[in-house]
From TrEMBL:
Coiled coil: none annotated. Pfam families: YjdM, Zn_Ribbon_YjdM. Residues 45-110 form the Protein YjdM C-terminal domain. Belongs to the YjdM family. InterPro entries: YjdM, YjdM_C, YjdM_N. PANTHER family: PROTEIN YJDM, PROTEIN YJDM-RELATED. Gene3D superfamilies: 2.20.25.10, SH3 Domains. This is Zinc ribbon domain-containing protein YjdM. Residues 3-32 form the Protein YjdM N-terminal domain. It comes from Veillonella absiana.
């Protein structure tokens, strides 16, 4: 019998499988095995559609973003070669014609 990972939210050891999902009976948290593998590897960042992002991915901005002291980043702007970082704005990138920028992952989608 394979041992299941502890709950990533509360750390409880009594997790169980429900189809393709892993479930914690103590806090009700649900996750997939892919999420558990990514969490063990380090930083987990998901886009607006729930796709897992990695360093070097290309993304598209999903809504117009107002930038302090500059113009607006338009919906559909492509951003190449992102870098994931810790924090509230968890994507560092360089946008052509705009410069260096920190973005929130909830405003981008993976290409």
């Amino acid at each position: 019998m394979a041992t299941l990972p502890n709950c990533p939210k509360c750390g409880d050891e009594y997790t169980y499988e429900d189809g393709t999902m892993l479930v914690c009976p103590m806090c009700g948290h649900e996750w997939t095995a892919a999420d558990a593998d990514a969490a063990e590897a380090g930083l987990v960042v998901r886009d607006a559609n729930g796709n897992l992002l990695q360093d070097g991915d290309s993304v598209t901005i999903v809504k117009d973003l107002k930038v302090k002291g500059a113009s607006t980043l338009k919906q559909g702007t492509r951003v190449k070669n992102i870098r994931l970082v810790e924090g509230d704005h968890n994507i560092d990138c360089k946008i052509d014609g705009f410069g260096a920028m920190a973005l929130k992952s909830e405003f981008v989608k993976k290409l």
